[in-house]
Amino acid sequence: MQDDNIQTPSRWQLFRDIIVFQVKLVIDGLRDALLIPTSLLAGLFGVLTKPSEPGHYFYRVVRMGRQSEKWINLFGMAPPDDPKSSTMDVRPLDSLIKDLESSVVDQYNRGGVTAKAKDAIDSALDAIARLRENQQETSDSSDSENTATKQ
Predict the structure, then answer these.
(1) What does the pLDDT look like over 42-93, one tens digit per residue?
(2) Fewer Cβ within 10 Å of end Cβ, the chain: N or C?
């Protein structure tokens, strides 16, 4: 069941959200792949070089990981320019993606390659939707005929 307060995104908003999510997943995965050996080495290095404070380097890595997690904002839906959404000094990834998206939209509005590509993709998707509807109608009518024939 769908919440009445949530608007259904357009096809292009959904495509954008899927692409942004995939990019964030890749960045998050790369960060995790780097944090695994870094945290192990930092912990070992702290134990060996700072016996009085063995977690010093490890917890620095953990803090960096927390900051990068906020920056990536993998599941965040708050607008990137909302001052309440981030307390970081660096721009969140959402803000950088918004800038990139603005550039693409500007090119589209000027009638560039993105406008032509969008029109072509829209036409193809509409044709596919019509084809599926026709196939569904054909399937429904033949099911009705088969049921009537059997009776």
Answers:
(1) 999 999 999 899 999 999 999 999 999 999 988 875 445 555 544 556 677 8
(2) N
DSSP letter string, the chain:
---TTSPPPPHHHHHHHHHHHHHHHHHHHHHHHHHHHHHHHHHHHHHHH-TTSTTHHHHHHHHHHHHHHHHH-TT--S-TT-GGG---SSPPHHHHHHHHHHHHHHHHHTT-HHHHHHHHHHHHHHHHHHHHHHHHHHHHHHHHHHHHHH-
Residue 49 — φ and ψ, nearest 5°?
-105, -20
pLDDT of residue 30: 97
Which pair of structure tokens corresponds to residue 45? 């290095």
Asked whether the beta carbons of 46 and 55 are under 8 A apart, the reply is yes
**Rounded (5°) CA angle 131-132-135:** 85
Q: In this structure, are residues 88 and 94 in contact, taking their beta carbons and an 8 Å threshold?
A: no
Residue 27 CB burial class (10 angstroms; 0-12, 13-18, ≥19) = middle
